[in-house]
Amino acid sequence: MSVRRLAEASVQPASFAFNKAMTAQAKTWINKYPKGREQSAVIPLLMLAQEQDGWVTKAAIEHVADMLGMPYIRALEVATFYTQFQLKPVGTRAHIQVCGTTPCMLRGSEELMDVCRSKIHHDQFHTNEAGTLSWEEVECLGACVNAPMVMIFKDTYEDLTPERLAEIIDQFEAGKGDQVKTGPQTGRVFSAPLTGFTSLTDEKGVLKSTREKEAKATSKAAKAAAAAPAAAAPNVAAAPDKADAPAKPSLDDKNRPAGIAKPAAVDDLKLISGVGPKIEGTLHELGIFTFAQVASWKKAEREWVDGYLSFHGRIERDDWVKQAKALAKGGEAEYIRVFGKKPV
Ligand code: FES
After folding, report:
1. Which of 88, 155, 160, 311 could be 182's S-S partner, Cβ–Cβ 3.0 to 4.6 Å?
2. Mutate which of 83, 99, 112, 139 to test ligand 1's pocket (most atoms within 8 Å of Cβ)?
3. pLDDT digits over 159-211, tens only?
4. Ligand 1 within 6 A of 147 CB?
5. Angle at 238 between CA 232 and CA 242, to 5 degrees
6. Residue 21: other Cβ atoms inside 10 A
7. Is the distance from the beta carbon of residue 150 to the nearest atom of ligand 1 less than 6 Å?
8. Hey, what CATH class is 9-81 in?
């Protein structure tokens, strides 16, 4: 980890102020946090300052601290800890952050740094003569599976060779950085195996058979529902209820909320009042694993889930969306703040 200090006083501007657009964005960020917790916005506000000036000045750090009512030292600690914050002026067209942590090192990050040394400056944190490019070595940027990689501003460029990095640097220097493809540079999709799939090789076939199974299950359920009134014929009072029961919505219905593959971290959906272990299991089968997913359901999607679970409006009555929004935003603490009680 490199030593991270503020730039020398000679390059520090005397003052800092957010422009109009950035002021509006800063307010939006501050409003995302509860009263008394405004300091939680320190990272996004420092990022806005960097986006505005290209680097984080001492005056900007103090300005942000003042805005959030926190001691200067606390904002300074944050700015000097994260390598995402540039503490001295960097290249105006590209600042290249080369990951030098073990996986990237084993896959050739040293050669990537040699490219930066020859094309930009021998030493990191120095701009080239034109002031357009600069570079530095940083710790793991979280794309190890596609090592070696670099980050330029907010984008990553992965699966790099020295030749490909040289081309990318040339494109940024020519002012065409926005035309460079981000992510893996080998043509693979995200972190898919380089040598092709070894399992689930026929994705369309898998999808088709899953859909067929779902359709079969739905039609079986529909048939059972249709047969139910006849079976219950002797009970004259009960028959109309069953006959009137709305059919379970189809799994292929356009209003079915989009599901996702099971993520590494699954939210405890049982914290939502109205969701027990069985319903949680059904939601998982539908690809619903997170509070954020539930929080994003539109009316039609809520109605679809309500119908699918035969809940007769309970999702609306229990306000799952409001509950999920609170849990997604701040877990149990935010739930208690919004509802005045612990989730059950
Ligand atoms: S080690 Fe380089 S991205 Fe993680």
Report:
1. 155
2. 99
3. 999 999 999 999 999 999 999 999 999 988 899 888 877 887 776 777 777 77
4. yes
5. 80
6. 10
7. no
8. mainly alpha
